[in-house]
Amino acid sequence: MSDEEKFKFMLKNNFLSLRITDTFIKQSIGSRIYQAAYNLCYQEFIEEVKKAK
Asked: Residue 38 burial (CB < 10 Å; 0-12/13-18/19+)?
């Protein structure tokens, strides 16, 4: 799979890809990423995760 195909696959499936480096993500940015990802989840999925906890 080419890099472009991987990128399109990730976009299509709402994946978040991060490149790990020596830079830290600030708490405020991490919270925004978390909230955006949470808002994209189906309610049924959120309920399944809560059950699994």
From this structure: exposed
